[in-house]
């Protein structure tokens, strides 16, 4: 039983707990439970012990803590890679994407924090007079919220999901209560264990709940914040929780997203489009909130693009990630495998398969024991009349081709996702790129323009950069996190301070500029 870390103690939950398994072999690795824990007391300890300790530190001091955590993780990286292979079925590429994402985000915010200097409050803009008489002025200051940050994370990124949220919260001076998804909690648990053993954070700054969330939200208060990543249904339950509403708790959600990629009508970069689509279908077995689910192609190029995608997907070898030639492992659990199958059954009502990898051999000792799902490329028979392809996210190596007749049709089809994290456009037409950016911005948290000129620098359609905001409108959760220093605002209380000019300017001078 993996222990929870609450009130600076490692405590195992009671009961049978929930099993964590190896998705290749089905072997049980551990169990998690929060039964028997007083989650209200755990939350209060974070607020009352971790909060004051963090707020007393300057941004520069907090930044040093983040840098120390990143260095620790670098030294422990080989061990983390093995855990990711065992509990998430990750290939080396998949594990690196998650673990290095966590390390990179910590280092990025450590550098930003050091630039804020030896202060523990920031200002938004400069002082300004409130009227014709400049003697009375105002400035917007921001200070750390006095509650705790509850982080509820998804199963697909146990490392990056945990630490991209924690990095921003800790830098802001707000203690973290992190709750990784139970099915892949082993990596997040080990990383927290290592940070605790190394004594890198003040007491109460970090709490880990390795099992269920249980009644945690019954104890939230107005100064707390909740950052959630997961399904839209669960996000709605978090937002609609009676206590969350009654105490007006600040909530940020990142939920389902039917992301798209559009091949421009006159684009000759078919190879770039194909490589991007295949990478997003297969990286982490398609279990990414930013993965491409809809691939929009000019109808005139449908045959050419489809054949190129088929050829590329045929080269993807699925199996046990411990085998050197395997490029894509299983999904994280048998439950997730069934979820993918159920989603495919719903999409089958309005699509036809153009590539079905399920007949290819799976490179594993006993494929029936694993949660393997082969890549599946579908084509919508009538993209405009379809509904399921614009509404159902199959969280696995699945994408649907949507042929379009005009770029206006493509924009309209992309918008049918009702809010996405990211849409990419492959084009060398500068006018089209400009129009696409402005049109797609209305329904996307991020728009990416791709052509051969940026191929070498391209981190990938689905890569979340800490310098850019991550989130999206509508069904994507209507949230926003990261984005450089913008990410700190979620954890800070912004206040307009009004007073005599000399007082206000002195306050402003003692703060760091956040915008």
Account of the 3D structure:
This protein is an alpha/beta fold. The chain folds into two domains: about 5-255 and about 480-515, Aldehyde Dehydrogenase, Chain A, domain 1 (3-Layer(aba) Sandwich); about 260-465, Aldehyde Dehydrogenase, Chain A, domain 2 (3-Layer(aba) Sandwich). It is about 35% helix and about 20% strand. It is built from 14 helices and 22 strands. The chain has helices spanning about 40-55, 60-75, 75-90, 90-115, 160-170, 185-195, 230-240, 240-245, 270-280, 300-315, 335-345, 405-415, 430-440, 500-510, and strands at about 5, 10, 20, 30, 120-130, 135-145, 150, 175-180, 205-210, 225-230, 250-255, 260-265, 290-300, 350-355, 375-380, 400-405, 420-425, 445-450, 470, 480, 490-500, 510-515. It has a seven-stranded mixed sheet with strand order 14-15-16-13-12-17-18, sandwiched between helices. Strands 9-8-7-10-11 form a five-stranded parallel sheet, sandwiched between helices. Helix 2 packs antiparallel against helix 5 (about 160-170) and helix 3 (about 75-90) packs across helix 4. The chain is globular. The two termini are about 45 Å apart. The mean pLDDT is about 95.
